[in-house]
Amino acid sequence: MPAWRKTDVATYGLIEAGGTKFMLGLADEKGVIGEPYRIPTTTPEETLGAAIDWFRSKSPLYTAFGIGSFGPLDLNRNSPTWGYITRTPKPHWANTDLAGVFARAFSCPVGIETDVNGAALAEARWGAGVGHGSLLYLTIGTGIGGGFVSDGRLLHGLSHPEMGHIRLPRHPDDLGFAGACPFHGDCLEGLASGPAIIARWGVSLSELATDHLAHGIIAWYLGQAVCTFQAMLEPERIVIGGGVTATPGLLDRVRKEAVNAGAGYFTGEPADVIVAPGLGTGSGLMGALAIAIRSTS
Ligand code: ZN
Questions:
Q1: What pLDDT score was predicted for residue 4?
Q2: Which residues contact 221 (CB under 8 A, 6 or more apart)?
Q3: Ligand 1 centroid, distance to 84 Cα (angstroms)
Q4: Could you give the residue range(s) of every CATH 3.30.420.40 domain in the chain?
Q5: What is the distance in A from the centroid of ligand 1 to the CA of 161?
Q6: Which of 17, 107, 213, 277 has its Cβ near the most Cβ atoms within 10 Å?
Q7: What is the mean pLDDT of residues 199-222?
Q8: Does domain 11-117+282-295 have CATH number 3.40.190.10?
Q9: 137 alpha carbon to ligand 1 midpoint, in Å?
């Protein structure tokens, strides 16, 4: 697992592209990641220009770049817009070339994935997935997303998976809420993301008393989701990360609800299958490193 310490040896350029900030980093050939550098996400011209200036100030040459980005992204290698952010509602960023900008500036391989796919790769390689052949990474925060890694390879189809937008049964005590997803209303993200929790109860889950019914309802939805993903993919590990899951006791509740929802079909020992991230919450640049390393092989 890469450690955080200062390094002047620039081999890999790392970018964690978020809606409010870009985190930049360097990693040497051993995978040691240097002190991260933060720039605000404003317009593509400003933010990408500042990123390129920073990387140029650190090294003239790079082995590869890895980008873990907010999406949606075009990840079809045969597409003329591969490596673009596509239809995001974020102002200025729809149809923005992200990967190509770095490829042209530094003439080296550039790998790009969604941030959640990057985290899934890093967890599989250095975190909770070590010693396991398959891993599903779910993040439950401002949005909900998932990435699946099997034998070191990410699942892709026409695009990256959009696991946050699956449809679920409704909890019987939650029928009055229309859901917070602007596209689907009561999909998983519309029911169990941070904004969906605040839309119903006014505060985040960790700010509600432990006996508040919200805890049971959110755990129930996440248990249904785990049951669905297990039926489709049977991951050896299901890693649940993101801000919402920092709520004390939630992971245990999700395990119980997943077993109940499986009704005899839950595979494995719940505490071994459903786990917290092995890399903590700081896996963004490690995801970018995993993406960069993969782009050179
Ligand atoms: Zn949705």
A1: 44
A2: 168, 171, 188, 191, 192
A3: 21
A4: 11-117+282-295, 128-276
A5: 12
A6: 17
A7: 97
A8: no
A9: 18
- This prediction has a pTM of 0.92
Distance 265 CA to ligand 1 centre (A): 26
pLDDT digits (tens, 9 = 90+) for 69-119: 998 899 998 999 999 999 887 899 999 999 999 999 999 999 999 999 999
Alpha carbons within 13 angstroms on the beta-carbon side of residue 219 total: 24
Per DSSP (E only), the strands in the chain are 12-17, 21-27, 37-40, 64-69, 84-85, 96-97, 110-114, 134-140, 144-150, 153-154, 237-241, 274-275
pLDDT higher than 90, residue 168: yes
How far, in Å, is the centroid of ligand 1 from the Cα of 29?
40
CATH number belonging to the domain at 128-276, selected among 3.50.50.60, 3.10.270.10, 3.40.50.720, 3.30.420.40: 3.30.420.40
- What is the distance in A from the centroid of ligand 1 to the CA of 217? 18
CA of 17 to the centre of ligand 1 (A): 22
| Ligand 1 center from residue 33 Cα (angstroms) | 35
